[in-house]
Amino acid sequence: MDIVSALFIENFDLRPVPGPSTRVDLIGAMFSMPAPAPPPVTVTPHLIVLIRSRRDDPPDGVLEVIFRDEAGEQVARNVSPFNVEPGKFTYRLVRGELEFKQLGTIEAHCRLVPDERTTVVPLTLLAPLSG
User: Fold this and answer.
1) What pLDDT, on a 0 to 100 scale, did the predictor assign at position 131?
2) Residue 86 forms beta bridges with which residues?
3) Residues 30 and 18 sit within 8 Å (Cβ to Cβ)
């Protein structure tokens, strides 16, 4: 199995098209966001991870996402088992509860257990918008 893509998003939609096939519409893909308040603050962005299964892969897998701050310290972790039909795709929606002690970047380190290959997705917290 492989991670095809991993992105922080605002929303997504699945829609069937002739084939039969499915389209994944990603809405509001982001790598940064303004803080809702001055730090320390907790944000809960959605991370979507798209996973491909090869025809000879087993149907069961485990997605592990470790969120790390700029010092490399773990700030959150999510482990999600999944099932995908061989030769098909699936997705996992991970909602991180990320505490930012200061403005900066947290990275989501995504991997399929026990594979050591990691897909890293950054999310930078920017200064709050002034009203």
Assistant:
1) 60
2) none
3) no
List, in order of start, the domains of the chain with CATH numbers: 2-126 (2.60.40.10)
DSSP 30: B
Quote the percentage of the chain above a pLDDT of 90. Answer: 92
* Residues forming beta bridges with residue 107, ordered by sequence position: 68, 122
Q: Peptide bond before 114: cis, by omega within 30 degrees of 0?
A: yes
**Can you give the pLDDT at residue 19?**
85
Q: Report the C-alpha gap between 56 and 82 in whole angstroms.
A: 16
Report the distance separating Cα 127 and Cα 83, nearest Å.
40
Q: In this structure, what token pair is assigned to residue 29?
A: 């893909």
